[in-house]
Amino acid sequence: MMSPSFPSNNQYIIKVSGEGSIPTTPDRAIIVLGAITESPNISTAQKENAETMSNIINSLMELGIPRENLKTVEYRIDIQYDYEDGKQTFRGYKVTYLLQITIDKIDQTGLVIDTAVKNGANSVSDIKFTVAHPNVYYNQALSLAIKNAEQKAVTIAKTLGATLHQVPNQVQEVSATSEPVPYQTALYAKSVATPIQPGQLEISAKITAEYSYYQ
């Protein structure tokens, strides 16, 4: 976006936008997994689920994952029905318990998943990769965005044969994007180590700026 405006006193305004991005390698993984159990008896379904999740949590802590990195994100009990010839028949109960695991040793991602599955996890619903300190990279991207806007303003002023006041009248941050990179989840085999590739994460920033120039 680049548009000059024309105030009085021979002072003119250029409004520009700037963008900057920093590619980085993720150093943190966030996994959501857990256990889903079903039974005609609600107490049985809850008990089996609790035992399975206890095994999962203990096995993850044995890998060195701190308890504070384990967070319950969903616990739900649903009534299950069968439908035949338009008739609803009670089948039982389904208990869903999902745990969010934050891993600071990203190379352990596959091991964590395999360990959880080995100990009873039958749902891996989400894997995302991010960085532990995104603000460091965002500030770099923000600096690039400001320089990008300044370059545009300089180009416009030079093309017009005008003198640019290089200190902007106004700078406004538009947005911050440092969304985690999602990993496509699938069924995981217990007998094969799960290969996980985090890929690259791009952290970007956008700004708008207003510069004065003189004829």
How does this model look, in words?
This protein has 215 residues and is an alpha+beta fold. The protein folds into two domains: 106 residues, Translation Initiation Factor IF3 (2-Layer Sandwich); 103 residues, Protein of unknown function (DUF541), domain 2 (Alpha-Beta Plaits), CATH 3.30.70.2970. Helix content is 27%, strand content 47%. It contains three helices and nine strands. It has a five-stranded antiparallel sheet. The longest helix is centred in the last third of the chain and has 27 residues. It is elongated and about 85 Å long. The two termini are 22 Å apart. This is SIMPL domain-containing protein.
Keyword list:
215 residues; Translation Initiation Factor IF3; Alpha-Beta Plaits; five-stranded antiparallel sheet; 3 helices; 9 strands; 26kDa_periplasmic_antigen
Total of helices: 3
Spatial strand order of the main sheet: 4-5-3-6-8
Mean pLDDT figure: 88
The beta-strand count equals 9
What do we call the CATH topology of the largest domain? Answer: Translation Initiation Factor IF3
The largest sheet, given as strand count, sense and whether it forms a barrel, is: 5 strands, antiparallel
Topology as a string of helices (H) and strands (E): EEEHEEHEHEEE
Précis, in short:
27% of the residues lie in helices and 47% in strands. It is α+β, with helices and mostly antiparallel strands. One of its GO terms (biological process) is DNA damage response.
